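Researcher: I'd like a candidate sequence for this fold, 209 residues long. If you have to choose between options at a position, lean toward the conservative one.
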């Protein structure tokens, strides 16, 4: 992310967050509330398995404009991807009505090194060290700014397999939000966050049908 985007106000500016409140809004689900009967901690693991399941050329996280956003989507929850870089990313996509969105404002994952064993406790500690706190978290939906986002940290309590065909252990940590379920309409989402060594700023325009 641009070096100027180092505070909440500047992150909002870089995202181009709109001020007017639009009529179409969507509920922000409390971080401790299950989604479709599953904890949001577990959804954070599933998000990583989804995000890591693609080759680079097919990855929604590497998608420049949103054309790949429907890849690998199943069930009642629709994942939105962040980015692999720090430049602001703008995407558009279509989402079925009734879905609940789940996505990271900013997050990280640690994995066992190749050909080496690392304890789960060590993996979780490394993930926590990469996410000690945030200089800024932003979530804006159709001009409505949400607060209290620091409470939406999800840290995996137990390590997990990040790949279906690989025994590599992983631990994740970060700030995730769940929104929905979505009614028909158009939604413009601006979101992002800043960690000491990582940042992202993403805009989605979603046509919910």
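Model: Candidate sequence:
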């Amino acid at each position: 992310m641009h070096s100027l985007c180092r505070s909440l106000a500047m992150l909002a500016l870089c995202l181009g967050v709109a001020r007017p409140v639009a009529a179409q809004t969507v509920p922000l689900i409390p971080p401790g509330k299950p989604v479709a009967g599953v904890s949001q901690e577990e959804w954070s693991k599933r998000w990583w398995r989804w995000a890591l399941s693609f080759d680079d050329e097919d990855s929604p996280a590497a998608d420049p404009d949103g054309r790949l956003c429907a890849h690998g989507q199943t069930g009642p929850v629709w994942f939105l991807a962040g980015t692999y870089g720090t430049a602001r990313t703008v995407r558009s996509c279509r989402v079925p009505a009734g879905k609940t969105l789940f996505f990271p404002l900013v997050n990280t994952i640690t994995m066992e090194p190749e050909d080496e064993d690392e304890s789960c406790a060590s993996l979780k500690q490394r993930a926590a060290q990469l996410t000690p706190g945030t200089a800024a978290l932003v979530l804006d939906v159709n001009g409505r700014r949400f607060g209290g986002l620091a409470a939406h940290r999800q840290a995996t309590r137990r390590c997990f397999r990040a790949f279906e065909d690989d025994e590599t252990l992983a631990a994740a940590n970060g700030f995730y939000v769940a929104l929905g379920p979505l009614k028909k309409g158009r939604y413009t989402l601006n979101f992002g966050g800043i960690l000491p060594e990582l940042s992202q700023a993403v805009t989605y325009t979603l046509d919910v049908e």
